[in-house]
Amino acid sequence: MSDRGREEEGALKFEIEKLAGLRELGLETCCWLELFLVLCGLAAGLRSPGKAFSYKMIEDELALFDKSINEFWNKFKSTLSDTSCQMMGLRDTYKDSIKALTEKLSVKLKEEERMVEMFLEYQNQICRRNKLIQEKKDNLLRLIAEIKDKNEKLEVLTANIQDLKEEYARKKETISAANKANEEKLKRLQKSADLYKDRLGLEIRKIYGDKLQFIFTNIDPKHPENPFMFSLHLNEAREYEVSDSAPHLECLAEFQEKVRKTNNFSAFLANVRKAFTAMVYN
Amino acid sequence: MAAFRDMEEVSQGLLSLLGANRAEAQQREVTLTACFTQLTRELEELKETEASLERQEREVDEDTTVTIPSAVYVAQLYRQISKIEWDYECEPGMVKGIHHGPSVAQPVQLGSTQLSKKFISDYLWNLVDTDW
Prior knowledge:
The complex is a heterodimer of chains A (282) and B (132).
Chain A: H1 3-21, H2 29-47, H3 55-200, E1 202-207, E2 211-216, E3 228-234, E4 240-246, H4 252-262, H5 265-281
Antiparallel strand pairs in A: 1-2, 2-3, 3-4
Chain B: H1 2-82, E1 84-86, E2 94-100, E3 105-111, H2 117-127
């Protein structure tokens, strides 16, 4: 065997051993690897003279090897293709899963959005309700304060009214008593004045201009009711001043002077009456 | 969500409670207002009573300060003029009293039923001194 031939053999052997090391192939390496080794051995045997070797045996072995190789190749292809199919299948499954997940997630996201909206809505409502409650509370407090105020005013008013009632009751009594006393007094005074008036036949009246009017009756025997009168007042000098006598008395002026001098009003009146009486008899 | 529902229930409860309180307060207010009105009316009546009492008081005052003194003055004047004091307790139909003359006091007794008025007047005036 040439050096070159030996090199090729060595390289081949190396390749075969490498392949044998590839467990992933999972191939039945036994038969054709061994076949190769056998072939290599046979080839070595061919090169070495003296070994009885059949060219037919080699051909058969090669055909067998070829067949094995083909079988291996087919198996390899189909395995690959299976793997490839599995991969595709897995990929499709993966895609479906992803799609389903995406849909689910999308639904969840929408739900979450709705929840957030609802939450904000509720927050708003609560805020509004709180304001409403506060308003109502304020109104109520104000109302209660008004009521309290009215209550107080009511109490004050009631007390005032009670006090006034009592005061007026007292006043009424006082006035009533005073009135009664006055009435009695006036009654007595009136009675007294009436007696004088009737019995003396003299009425004394207050008239306008701060004057007193003296009216005598029971003068004229024929007409006792006929009045004989004159007026009297105190002038600025606090002197008696007579006037308006009816019927007219001449001596009235004289009497006026006398009474101014003596201040004897009693005698004055008695003399006036006497003069009136004398007038009738004349 | 349940928490939201709870909160809503609570706030409804609060509102209705406030509503009830308010209704009660308003009811009390109506009652109070009625009392208030009635008392105001009583006060008005009292004011009228006060005015009436003031009127009566004025009348009594007038009596006390004017009418009575006037009457007293007149009575005193008669007394001063005639110098006669009547016996008010004597039996009716009698003219009875005392005449206070310048030196003596003289009783007066007349039966008015049998005597004319003129006679009585003349008699009484005759008792009065005409000397200045």
